[in-house]
Amino acid sequence: MNDTRLTIILLAGQRPGVDPLASHFGIERKALVPVAGRPMLDRVAQTLLKRDDVGRLVIVGQAPEGFFEHPQTRWLRGDPRVETHDGPGSIVEAILGAIAARGLQWPILVTTADNVLLSNAMVDAFVAGAAGADIGVALVERRTLEAAYPGNKRTWLRFRGGAYSGANLFWLGGSGAEKALGVWRGIEQQRKKARAVLGAFGYGLALLIGLRIASLDQAIAIAGRRLGIRAKAVVLPQAEACIDVDKLSDHELVEAIFAARTLLPPN
């Protein structure tokens, strides 16, 4: 297989217990919640598999073969690029488990089944921006989102020069990524996670961020040096990149976005 092709981990699991969004629609699996008439997993997988540069797509979740029982996702079983990995436990454990079990090679792009507004333009911009990094994260600036969707509520990470919300796109570019994931797995396993984060990345970095002395790029660079890896934050220009479908209000917004797109005149 051509080594320049993308390997993608598509996270489609859910937290233990009943997922509120799935329950609202009377189904068990969040990844199969319909958006504009199609399951979320189907939308994201189609966007990715229509790309010429995708070599492998590994769907990770609990009992993932069950996703193919839905009539609108059954087609995934017949695509030779599609694989599955049963990934119980935390997100980091699921990612590391998939890498080991499926023998995945770097680099790896990670996204989620609820990232239903994902587009080729987002993937292109992120891959180009994250190139050369051991680990990369996609973000959207607050001004970008609020200009397009005023009043939308997100969790904002504040740095000198701006506030940012995470987008569900991650780049694992080399063995250094495994080191970073290992650190994060250790944080996930500790009860006092805030203290664990400070221990991993340093109180000095937390102070620089808290006082808004460090810019986003500076903070990412410091965290990377702390771990001995090269880390990048990629700020995407598309507001939709940070709108995932995690709750009913997100679902209503995304439904409205798709409805508005159907009303646009053809180019």
UniProtKB/TrEMBL annotation:
It holds the Pfam family NTP_transf_3. Transmembrane segments: none annotated. The keyword Transferase does not apply. InterPro entries: MobA-like_NTP_Trfase, Nucleotide-diphossugar_trans. Gene3D superfamilies: Spore Coat Polysaccharide Biosynthesis Protein SpsA, Chain A (3.90.550.10). Residues 22-140 form the MobA-like NTP transferase domain. The keyword Plastid does not apply. One of its GO terms (molecular function) is nucleotidyltransferase activity. Keywords: Magnesium. This is MobA-like NTP transferase domain-containing protein.
